[in-house]
User: Fold this.
Amino acid sequence: MADAPQTDPRPRVELRGISKHFGEGERRVDALAGIDLTVRAGEMIGLRGPSGSGKSTLLNVVGCVSEPSAGWMRLDGDVVYDARWLRHDLRRLRLMKIGFIFQTHNLLPFLNATENVAEAMELAGMSSRQARTRADGLLDYLEVGHRRHAYPGEMSGGEAQRVAIARALANGPRIILADEPTAPLDSARAHVVLDLLGRIARDHEAAVLVVTHDESIFQRFDRLISLRDGRLVATEEIGRAAGLAAEASLPTP
Amino acid sequence: MNLALRDVRRNKLRFVLTALGVGMLLGTVIAMTGIYEGALTDALALPRAEGAALWVVQPRTFGPFAEPSRIPRDTRDLVRRMPGVAAAGAVTFQTVQTAVGGKPVRMFLEGYEPSRPGGPPDLAAGHGLTESHYQIVVDASSGLGLGERVPLGPYRDPYTVVGLTHGMVSSSGDPMAWVNLLDAQALQFAVPPPLQRRELAAKRNPPTTADINAVLVRLEPGASAGAVEQDIARWKHLAAVPEAQEEGYLTLFVIQKMQQQLGMFMGILITVSAVIIALIIYTLTMDKLRSIATLKFIGAPDRTIVGLIVQQALTLGVAGYAIGLALVMLVKDRFPRRVQLEPRDLIVVFAIVIVVCLAGSVLGVRAAVKVDPAEALASG
Assistant:
């Protein structure tokens, strides 16, 4: 465990008593029921559970896409939701503090790699020239810079996913949410993506929350959280030492 | 470059084909404004070319263009002798249909007295009438050339083309032609010999060929048109119409119907264009719902999404307008009627296109604004 990441003890995300229900009366469905969770800077957490367990709902709440029905959430020290339903500009929070990686890369098909990454920065107010320069830097960082002029339809799945990760990093997010980012990839590429996420968590001091069903990558997380029926039923402390050691030996994609 | 233009750049062929379709519709609208302006110019070209201050016609008619007008030929001498009148010329107007070299030729024929008011304006080729009979000056748009023989009248008397004008057509688009007044009177009023014999046998006077349709009056410098008009009106069988009023009759009675017809067609075409643009923009938006959800998910404000759709609609409209205008410019000289594009009309059509595009993007904008960002999480 000598190479274990030096995590920032400050919490990036704090959830307390987060509940979310849909419908009322007999039709009421409790998607989340009293979730308590803290994710710290540099930490990479896996979130697993069967279909309908509330993973996507939790991702939407943490990602400021939908509001909880009860509980409070603090993101990078700022209260996003609380018991009195005060909330911030969720769109702005998503843009500036959260990076998303989707199961299918969700790149805009009419933009090339650089433009896809730069668009997120331009939305945040950066000039086009600056955004492009920084986007190219991020693509180089993710070792996909040689494909900067390629459109999503011209890229392999792994390349597109790296570009999507670069877009997630565009505005220096405090937390990165990934929804089954390795699902469309083979095992080797899946591990490469996880290596990248681990490196990002370490280099950018971001908290990374990954929803996954892929048992072969469970060991790559610092913690693995299990959800069932909207409740946190288990938390396994795993550590990434093995994964980080393996990272150095992986071939460059 | 904004998102809308990037999308267009990525889907050039689809955009070009769509813009071409919209362009053809808008081109038709532009052409119709040009046809109306052309018809107005054509209709007014003849009275303006005559250069008459007053038109003496049959009273209580809107003659000689909007309604038939028939007055005695000696009206010209009578008017000429009035104080303030510098010159007067008798004229007739009629439409003739004939065939030259097997091809049908339709012309609006003016009979006039050489050296008096009336007759063709500046000639583009050849010369004016030099003989009393069987010479004709025609507009080049008739397709006739100098020296060609044009059969006219019930006995198909051959008239030789001796002069050509350019751009002189009637309000209905027929090329103008000019013959000597005596020839024109015979063509318009003469009756065949059997009918003459029948009338004489019945001890009735055969129809006269000495009538005319109007007298064109030029005034002496400083003479009052109003005073001459009042003097002429003392004869109860005559009325004097000022040039401006004659143009008004043409515009109001002859052109107005065409304006209404063209206006209705333009309204239909603009409505069709609006529906098509709305459908195209809606379809383009539906194709991009996942991209829109992703944009919203990563924090794009609604104005970015709305801008994407509205800008695309405007780009389509402006490109369609440019294509339509270019198509009209290409074909307008081959069009069977004068197509006269006026900057004022082009600006109005452009403004309508912008409004139509904005209205057409409403459906797409509504669909886009309703997209839930969480849809970006859906797989597939």
